């Protein structure tokens, strides 16, 4: 199945661009996709999944909805979905 991946801030740098279209196995979950991203992009290794769960303070949206409000890493992915991955954000005064 084809999936549109959108990356922001440091994850965009690691992926080499804001948007990547990629093929994944049918019946993949968010966790499957994130593990594959960690294996593919050096700058994401160990930054998406920590101790078997979504890394702290990152946001992953499936078609605009936070996956933590769905089924977390077990959220199913379907052909044509869009997955957006945001690193932790800090700053401000």
TrEMBL record:
One Pfam family from the record: ThiS
Superkingdom in the source lineage: Archaea
Name of this protein: MoaD/ThiS family protein
